[in-house]
Specification:
It contains 6 helices and 17 strands. With 349 residues, it is an alpha+beta fold.
Amino acid sequence: MRKFLLLAPFSFCAVTSCKDDKIRTYKVATDPSAESPALPAANPASEGSRQVEFTRADSVIWQAPGDWKQEAASQLLTAAYTLPGGGRVTVSKLGGDGGGLAANINRWRGQLGFEPLDEKDVAGQPLKVSDSNEEMLLFNLTKTDSTEDTLGILAGILPLKQETWYFKFSAPVSVLRKSEGLFMEFLRSVRIPSSQKSAPVSNSSGGGKIHVTAPDGWTSSEGSSMRVASFSIAGPDGATADVSVVPLPGDAGSILDNVNRWRSQLQLSPLVSADDSALGKKEQTPIGEIFISHMTSTEPITDGKKAAIGTAILKRAGMTWFFKITGEATLVHTNLEKFDSFVRTATFP
């Protein structure tokens, strides 16, 4: 994914203690008429009919699915959860910049047996924190050739003015791939009740510049901070689809890893070989060689309907560009030809 980097917990005691954190947890019924804190609604796909927990610890609020089992508080962690499908999610904080981005990433890499990176090579994928000007950085610490039982870490790091927050999912690679979408929903639930200015963080992910021309029927949308282009598509009976263009620095993961990430979002089993015909195909275009992949869920997963994803990956000048259309399956399928043409309109300043 991108440069999404992912196991064993941090040893935070040597730097700071979380024992004095004030944590408040609210159990809120999923009935929309029920009174709840002023937080965004949970994703029905991950929530179902379960209860959802809203947790506030000092300057940060997050929402954990109701079937995540919360562990007893400890001096090392602000919160910790055991997931029903396996793995563990922890929430921790350090004062200031926590010793620096590179130091923490290399600590995780050391736990997984990876070689340390130079500070200039540590790059995370930005994720805008809703209702604020803050950005979380996403990291995926797994190897492309990892076996399914190899341990890995998915993490989000949120730097604030006086502290840095760490949200970490530790599990075998097979569990990470299966539950990555759920962990991402957890990260997207993070909110900051009181505005704080971010602490300086070294992140070389960059933005990249591109010009694309959208076809008729597509509407420009705000998207997120990591997108350089974003569009929405409206279909019949309330069906919708989303189109995004996201640049990431460097290789940003193998084709197989990225396709399997998208397949997990559609609740499809991962592919095991880069030679599998279901992976997709290469095509030569005026902007370079692109890799095209299409996939559709086998079961209804969004509002009682199947969902689909169409993608194109372009590696160019030290950047990896991800073009993606996702949404209700029929609407995505009817827009695939437009999507294909859209990708080929790309020009680079």
